[in-house]
Amino acid sequence: MSKLGFLAVFLLSASGAMAQDAHQHPTTGNVAATGDIAATGAAMSKQALIDDALSAAPPAIADSAVVKEWDGSTLREGRGEYICFPTPPQKRGTGNKEPMCLDQVWQSWGDAWMNKKPFKAEKVGIAYMLSGDTGASNVDPFADKKTSDNQWIVEGPHLMVLLPDPAQLEAFSADPNSGTAYVMWKGTPYAHVMVPIGARPRQ
Are the C-beta atoms of residues 109 and 11 closer than 8 Å to each other? Predict the structure, then answer.
């Protein structure tokens, strides 16, 4: 999950807009993203962007989520606490998808990560990336590319969990190849549990 790519834009341009959502009823449900994301690149239609964003979440979340573009503009109003984002503009047209849906705890986490501030979850936070991601280091929160020793992982469909008690992370392995849930960025304020629910793409 390329958090570097999504959070930099998310926090710089969308954080102020998050607080002003009216939370009206959404107009669409969880529709699988179409081939438009690969075919049209940054020129995707509004509906294609919405469909792509909602493909990150299960139907119960997608039904009520707010959908925002990376510039902070609202693509669809919603009544839930989740905000879903489509694949970042720089990755559209490449065949790579990276939409995501974040709850309020993850939105606070993002502010801390972006500004390199301490972070402690006040309650369990869950984010969804059911379309997978384009990769991130498992050990370095600020790595932006693969190196020989930073455990770069391209994950398939997964969700991410923030826990209020850091000691709870000790129940999980930090090995991304353990075949089960694992801790990403262990030993940092941004540590969280990665929960794969599908196969990783071939590297």
Answer: no
Degrees, nearest 5: CA angle 191-195-199: 130
CA pair distance 138, 143, nearest whole angstrom: 9
Query: Quick one: pLDDT at residue 203?
Result: 64
* Mean pLDDT score, 51-72: 96
pLDDT tens for residues 141-165?
Answer: 999 999 999 999 999 999 999 999 9
CB 154 within 8 A of CB 179: no
Q: Which amino acid is present at 69?
A: E
What count of Cα atoms within 13 Å lies in the side-chain half-sphere of residue 40?
13
Q: What is the DSSP letter of 15?
A: H
Question: Average pLDDT of 62-71?
Answer: 95
Task: Tell me which long-range contacts 57-60 makes (C-beta under 8 A, separation of at least 24).
Answer: 57/30, 57/82, 57/84, 57/101, 57/128, 57/130, 58/30, 58/128, 58/130, 59/29, 59/30
Residue 13 above 70 pLDDT? no
